[in-house]
Amino acid sequence: MINLLKNLYIAADYKRSAASLNHTLRVGGPASAGTMVVLVYRLEPRSGGLRNVARIVNALAGHLGKSIQLYIQNPEKTDASLTREYGFRADVASSLPTAADLYVTTSFIFSLSLPDLLAKFPSRWNHIIQDYDELFFPISTRYYHAAKVKVGPEAFIASGKWMKLPGRTAYLPFPVDPAIYHASPASAAKRDIDVLFFHKPELPRRCALVCEQLAETLLVARPDLRIAFYGSNLSKRLTKARVEHLGALPSLETLGNVYRRSRVGVSFNLTNPSLIPFEHMASGCMPVSPYVESPPEFHLPGIHVEGTLSQLSEHVLARLELPDLETQALSLYDSYLDQGYLCRKEDFGRAVIEAIETL
């Protein structure tokens, strides 16, 4: 059964890559005056990256005095509900308007098609790096084609400090919502999860199998550890790890409650900075984010940990021995907040405007 699921996933991803490389824009008529068009290849469910895209384009449109048209290359029945869930203040366009004031892409695959449109109808073009971007796949067919693009966006918008991007870049702070991610619940919560893993087999950069291996290594050393996986409903079907499977949590509020139950939060993300460790620490959960030879501009002190499985296990176990773990996590959060690497959710709109004005 596991082999069947694996083969189906590989086949689906292969077909998806082929389809994206061969896509054709559904071009429509002229845009209304004062329109900003946001291009999304597909509205993926449970995407923190797309949620962040919505925050960015909403703030950008408000600052520029533009209305937003959301163009989805691969429309699905769930688009209307996901548009509302992610908070896009936009009308969904069935075809791509021409001659808009600004085009904002959220997938680098559009660099294969949008230049032809802009050659006929010149306009500004910005690109937001988000979860499903081809530039997140450093060893893949999609990345190969993205890296060969010669005519691309004028500027990039990225969350967190990124490795070098091929153009002017506005680096945004990560927005953390203190109403959801905090360490002081209305009713005192017991931290009954020793180690919480973000486990999402759908995203290769999240290293789900390594999470399982690390969990098993920890349990060999400490059989009494309380370990939980969250993030995907595939988790329980694909793994035999002796852990609690929380699956895809139903709401951000539920997620915040789980973080407040946890002492250490482990999340892999080998391609770019991630919001998850910051939400962990804001909730008093000590983040551990393994990495591999991270470039200096990507390295996050106090969060990133390098090493073998046994070394990662030793690091986590040493953290669990600290009596003031929650206090240290909150202090780390305050440090990144003071550095401007983070901001509170209510300050994000202003941070977007300040960053964009530097481009």
From TrEMBL:
Name of the molecule in the record: WsaF C-terminal domain-containing protein
User: Which ranges carry the WsaF C-terminal domain?
Assistant: 195-288
Organism per entry: Roseateles rivi
Q: Sorted alphabetically, which SUPFAM superfamilies does this protein's record hold?
A: UDP-Glycosyltransferase/glycogen phosphorylase
Pfam families attached to this UniProt entry: WsaF_C
The record's section on Gene3D superfamilies has: Glycogen Phosphorylase B (3.40.50.2000)
